[in-house]
Amino acid sequence: MATYDSVHIPAGSVVRIGDDIGSMTSLGELDGESSIQVSYDRQKVVSSVGTTIKDFVKNMTATASFSLMQLYLPNVQKLFDGVATVSSVTGTLVSGAEQVITSGWAANQLIRLQGQNGTGVAPTINSVSGSSSGDGAADNDYTLVKGTDGMWYIALRTDGTATFSTGEAVTVDYDYTPAASRSFKMGSKSAELTSKIVEIEKTIGGKIFRVRLWSAVNTAGITIAFPQSDSDSVATIPIEIEGTIDTTKSDGEQLLDIYDEIGVDM
Predict the structure, then answer these.
(1) Looking at the 3D structure of the chain, how many domains does it have?
(2) How much is the pLDDT for 159?
(3) Which end of the chain is less congested by CB atoms within 10 angstroms, N or C?
(4) CA 165, CA 155: separation in Å to the nearest integer?
(5) Among residues 177, 197, 231, which one ends one of the domains?
(6) CB within 8 A of 266, min separation 6: which ones?
(7) Complete DSSP assignment for 23-79
(8) What is the value of pTM for the model shown?
(9) How far apart are CA 211 and CA 13, in angstroms?
C-alpha cells in the first residue's frame, strides 16, 4: 500500500465529530501535534512487452492520529457510536446558584455557566443583573446558547435596547441539577461502528486551517493515559481515526477536504 506524505495539524487544534456539518460536537483541544496520512493500493496493468497500459489507485483511506485533552464521557462516546453507551444518575438540584461575570466582558462573548444539568438540557435562568443597570431581559439583554461542546453558555448583549454595559459586573442566578455519576459502557461479541464526519480545525489570527474526513470511525479502541497524582499533566486519550470513501460525495471529493487560509501566503 502506498502512503502519501503526512499532513501536519497545528498544536492546539480543536476536533469535532457529527453526523452532518450542521450538528458537529466539539471534543476539545488536541494535546500536542497530530497528523493525517493518506494511503491507497496502487494497481498497475502491464502488457506482455512491459508497456504500462493502466496505472491507478483504489481503496483510499485517510488516518488521523491525535490525543484528546478531554474526558467528558458523553462526547467521548461519540467516537464509539454503535459500540458504546453513556448513562448518568441524576444528582441534587442546586437552586439559586450565582455566577459573577466581572467587568470587562465582551458583548456576545460566550461565557460558560459553571453549573450544568446532567441531562444536557439548559439550566433555568432566574435572573441576570448588572451591578449598575439592574435586571436584564432574556433575548434582549442576554441569550442562552448551547456550545458545540454540549455545554451551555450565556452571551451578554449591548446592542439595540439592551441595558448592560461592559464596564459593569453581571450576576447570573440560575438553577441546575448536575449528574451524580456517569457510566461509559462498551463490549459486545459483534457490533457495528457508526461512521461520522470528523473535522480538525485551528484558527490563528482569524484565519482557519481545517481538515475534514467525510466517513470516519475510530479504529484503535480507547486508551486513557492517567498522569501521576503530583504531575502537572492532564489525562489524555490517544485516538486514531480512519476515513474511507463516502460515495454520496462527488467523485474526486469522497475522502477528505483540506481547507487552508493560514498557509496561502507562504
Answers:
(1) 2
(2) 86
(3) C
(4) 13
(5) 177
(6) none
(7) G-EEEEEBSS-EEEEEEEEEEEEE-TTS-EEEEEEEEEEEEEEEEE----HHHHGGG
(8) 0.70
(9) 10
pLDDT over 70 at 15, yes or no: yes
- Do the domain assignments include residue 239? yes
List beta partners, residue 8. 35
Residue 213 has pLDDT above 90, yes or no: yes
- Does 265 map to a domain? no
Give the three-state DSSP class for 143: strand
Q: Helix, strand, or coil here: 96?
A: strand
C-alpha cell at 208: 482557519
DSSP string, 206-222: TEEEEEEEEEEEE-S--
Q: Write out pLDDT tens, residues 48-70.
A: 767 777 777 788 899 888 888 76
Residues 96 and 120 in one domain: yes
Residue 152 lies in a domain: yes
More confident residue, 248 or 56: 248
Provide the pairing of β-strand 237-243 with 207-218.
Answer: antiparallel
172 and 195 housed in the same domain: no
How far is it, in rounded angstroms, from Cα 85 to Cα 76? 10
What is the number of other CB atoms lying within 10 angstroms of the CB of residue 201?
18
Domain that holds residue 39: 2-86+184-260
Beta-carbon contacts of 186 under 8 Å, excluding residues fewer than 6 positions away, are 80, 83, 84, 85
Residues 149 and 207 in one domain: no
Are 246 and 195 members of one domain? yes
Q: Do residues 88 and 181 lie in contact, with contact meaning Cβ atoms separated by under 8 Å?
A: yes
Same domain, 119 and 188: no
